[in-house]
Design a protein that fits this description.
- The complex is a heterodimer.
- By secondary structure, chain A is an alpha/beta fold.
- In chain A, 36% of the residues lie in helices and 19% in strands.
- A ten-stranded mixed beta sheet of chain A has the order 3-2-4-5-1-6-10-9-7-8, with helices on both faces.
- The radius of gyration of chain A is 20 Å and the shape is globular.
- Chain B is 53% helix and 0% strand.
- The relative contact order of chain B is 0.20.
- Chain B is globular.
- Chain B has one domain: Non-ribosomal Peptide Synthetase Peptidyl Carrier Protein, Chain A (Orthogonal Bundle).
- Classes of the chains: A alpha/beta, B mainly alpha.
- At the A-B interface, helix 1 and helix 4 of A face helix 2 of B.
Chain lengths: 355, 85
């Protein structure tokens, strides 16, 4: 039984609903990068859109686009991952609580501020009565959603799943996380990001939807071969987990063409990946993606997305190689890509993608 | 009364986020619900909050809303007669 990523669609720092980042990525040039918004009118009428927050609009549009690309009208399940849900409306609601002395609170902001607003709005729009779930586990929200879909598809409980990763960044929220050291406060170069000698990452926001199903088509991006999530592993446990997943799938490490990692230029975050590089992936080309998509609670979804698009197109663009020397020597069509992400070195995930 | 109608139109546009609409686009005699502006039950809740917050009017009986929200003009007349701020 095989599970495939049929299609994917995103709204992010990069050109929305497009794979133009493969050729011409937009390189973040400020600490607070706003997502580039598509034209919502072809997807949502102004009367419908007026009550929706930015994140819900993004989620609806990426979902519609992923379903269209995957030629699916009605998924069996809608599963979303979001670290903090609809922050824009949460802020509006909380500000109203303060400004109005806990009285006269706006119902729209309250309804739109819940985490599961996203999945439910997608379901309402599609009139989908199937399985509907939202995972809010900070940095592993998307991984949890993907794992749920993977297990349900593996067990034959569903045939198609729309899996999403949605998180937004507002100026206030950016400021709060800045104070906690989440973001870079000095200008940086790609070289400095690679060195990862300073704290903080580049802030981003994320809306990514992907369609999973059991049929392989010409347009299929790749196979979601296997995945694993684990808690607070040391380097030894990580190595075992990688070996296990490869053994289960009868793949020697030498056949992994590249490993996608969540390197962000934040020293605390990147040290884990550099350790893995040193102990496990000495001879495997290392790719990164947060330098063009930014960091957010749902950013790990872009790791899977980047791997899937590279497998589908049969090439890896130069700018995704963490080490430019490896890009120069890489001249094959990738067949197997491993995606490794972690959140605060607590929750780790491995996703194995194959052509 | 004219000033209140104009003010109310602006507040309705802002509270209900009627993007691209101006006060001139709202007919003060047209129904707010169903035909006319085509508002729904969630909008009705927003309008109840608006009346309480901006004019100090607390609707005691939900059924009153049907009459009060007939049109912008009816709403303005009700506010004019019952406002506490």
């Amino acid at each position: 039984m095989s599970i495939y990523i049929q299609s994917a669609s995103h709204i992010s720092i990069q050109k929305p609903l497009s794979e133009e980042w493969m050729e011409m990525p937009i390189i973040p040039d400020s600490f607070f990068m706003k997502s580039e918004e598509p034209d919502y009118k072809p997807f949502i009428s102004p009367m419908e859109a007026r009550r929706m927050g930015t994140l819900v609009k993004r989620a609806l549009v990426t979902s519609a686009d992923a379903l269209r690309k995957g030629d699916c009208e009605m998924p069996d399940a809608i599963i979303s991952g979001t670290g903090l849900g609809c922050v824009e409306h949460t802020e509006k609601f909380l500000n109203a609580v303060i400004d109005n002395d806990e009285e006269c609170l706006p119902p729209t902001s309250f309804m739109q501020s819940t985490h599961n607003t996203i999945s439910s709005q997608i379901a309402l729009r599609l009139k989908c009565h199937g399985y509907n779930s939202t995972y809010s586990h900070r940095g592993t929200s998307f991984d949890s959603a993907l794992f749920d879909a993977f297990m349900q598809l593996s067990l034959g409980k569903i045939g198609t799943a729309l899996v999403g990763a949605h998180d937004e960044m507002t100026p206030d929220y950016f400021l709060m996380l800045s104070k906690l050291g989440y973001w870079k406060t000095n200008f940086y170069t790609l070289e400095q990001l690679r060195k990862g000698e300073e704290g903080g990452a580049i802030s981003g926001s994320c809306s990514l939807s992907m369609l999973l199903s059991m049929q392989k088509k010409d347009t299929t991006l790749c196979e979601l071969k296997d995945m694993e999530m684990f808690y607070r592993p040391g380097i030894l446990q990580s190595r075992h987990a990688i070996n296990d997943i490869l053994l289960r799938n009868k793949l020697p490490l030498s056949e992994i063409d590249a490993v996608v990692m969540g390197l962000s230029g934040d020293q605390d975050n990147d040290d884990v990946y550099h350790e893995l590089r040193k102990h496990v992936f000495q001879n495997t080309p290392m790719l990164w993606y947060k330098q063009i998509f930014g960091e957010s609670f749902s950013a790990s979804s872009f790791g899977v997305y980047v791997g899937a698009v590279c497998l589908h197109e049969g090439r890896i663009p130069y700018h995704l190689f963490f080490n430019p020397d490896e890009a120069d020597n890489f001249q094959k069509e990738p067949k197997n890509i491993l995606v490794y992400n972690h959140f605060h070195d607590r929750d780790h995930s491995i996703v194995l993608l194959t052509k | 009364m004219e000033n209140l109608i104009e003010e109310l139109k602006k507040e309705i546009i802002e509270v209900l986020n009627l993007e691209g609409m101006t006060p001139a686009d709202i007919d003060e005699n047209a129904p707010l619900f169903g035909e006319g502006l085509g508002l729904d039950s969630i909008d009705a809740l927003e309008l109840i909050v608006l009346m309480e917050k901006n004019y100090g009017i607390k609707l005691q009986n939900a059924n009153e809303g049907k009459e009060i929200f007939k049109s912008v003009k009816v709403m303005a007349e009700y506010i004019n007669a019952h406002r506490t701020k």
